[in-house]
Design a protein that fits this description.
- Keywords: Membrane, Transmembrane, Transmembrane helix.
- The protein is an alpha+beta fold.
- It folds into four domains: 80 residues, no CATH class; 173 residues, no CATH class; 78 residues; 72 residues, Nucleic acid-binding proteins (OB fold (Dihydrolipoamide Acetyltransferase, E2P)), CATH 2.40.50.
- The chain is 29% helix and 32% strand.
- It contains 14 helices and 29 strands.
- The strands form seven sheets. Strands 1, 13, 14, 15, 17 and 18 form a six-stranded mixed sheet that branches. Strands 2, 3, 4, 5 and 6 form a five-stranded antiparallel sheet that branches.
- A hairpin with a 2-residue loop joins strand 7 and strand 8.
Amino acid sequence: MKRYVKTYFISFLVVAVYAFIKLPVLRLDFVSLFFTLAIFFVVAGLLDMMFDRAEKTSKIAKYNFSIAIALIIYIVAVPFITSTPILHAKAYRNLIGDVKESEFTEDVSPVSVKDIRLVDEDMAMKLGDKKLGESPALGSVSKLGKFHIQSVKGELYWVAPLVHRDIVKWITSLEGSNGYVMVSASNPQDVRLVQSIDNKPVKIVYQPDAYLHQDLQRHMYINGILNVGITDLTLEINDEGRPYWVASLYEHKVGYSGANCTGIAIVDAETGSVKRYSIKDTPKWVDRIQPQDVVANQIDNWGRYIRGFLNSAISEEGVLIPTEGTSLVYGNDNKSYWYTGITSSGGDESTIGFMLVDSRTKEAKLYKQPGATESAAMKSAEGKVQQMNYEATFPVMYNILGKPTYVSSLKDKAGLVKMVAFISVEDFSVLGLGETKEEALRNYRDSLESQGNNVNLENDTTREEVEGTITRINSDVKNGNTSYYLTIDSKNDVIFKGGSKVSNELTLSQIGDKVKIAFQKGEQNLVDIIEFNNLNIGETGTVSDKATLEQ
């Protein structure tokens, strides 16, 4: 009897060491549980043979080996039967939940120009590395971890932790690495190395690049999160700037596959405090609960298995697939959404619409908006400046002037942003380029109007109006085009510029006239006029349509 107790006790210790190293999920819908049990019984059988020292294998050893073999057969056969899409296509399609069709302008709020993202992850890494290089002593022991975009007090930042370079640096820095880097998503000049808050040092003790008990996932495991899948380890900072690791927790909904998020775990990066939350109870400052890979797979299953597995593999009738790439976009409601275009099978460079999935609740909405894919938009922008050999970043979709619009940065070979492109989702040949966001938006507005599009001024948050009396006005002719420059008393620090294409009233205006001017927010000093109305002449004289001018 003592031999059996000894055998199983040692087997348990072996499996405990294995679990500490490999971190298997001990849950019935994860194969790792049964694999761990198989190891336990194999070790028990071997130990029993060693302790017995008989010429023949004991019955207990055979019993242990039989259980291990049965578990291995189970691992091979049962997951296939219960998880294959051949038999469970409908279950896979339903993982995303109800997908509601909606109107773009109803759900996607217009965005201000200042909030448009210029910096992508690659550029954030270059800017972060440059910032880290300003402190050679720090850069020799730490490196930047993965950047994730997030909203911090209403502003978008790429945030990455400083992590250990290797095991030697970890051993010599057990108190943790020194802080994190923030890079503004809209302003490449705003790069911060945060090493202290309220005069207290910020330490990243627990991290994916640490070892043993300071390894982030292992720390979570030994603190009780061992019966659920862990993925998408993201460093997020709260409103006070304190760093926390946010990990998505998931289970399997289709046999041993079909990952589905059930909540999150938040780990204090310095103290190691672990708290587990359901989706409903997650703190508001956490941007992403639903992992990107999980959402992307569920969207793919939703479109691929629309008429079952055989149809997806053979005729592909009605099959919809997401376009290449998924991005995190933010609305004016400060909520974040996973965005991807949706195209038909073999749709090449056109889409039938796009989908937005709430990154917290997984509420999914489909917007049937035919247009160009992200790659087609990138090629269109690059084609306009092909002589420069600029490369377009993966675009982010916004509501600009009431139109779904891709916004992409154009970078040179050094990875620096040289231009900004606004590209219409509906027609990628309609675009505006500029060295600044404001200039690109002006050109995009002109491009839309030249193609006969109705620019939705009610949803134009980039537009500002002012009334005042003209204090100075003059004209200038360049390349045969006459531009008028004027100042008004209510905004005397700005020079307004416009031509007859904006309004024929500009040619008749003079000092002392009361005027109403619409212009683009965010511009300073020299401002382009969007709309001009001389109130002394009267409302009827306003010309706001280029077609009217041509007549």
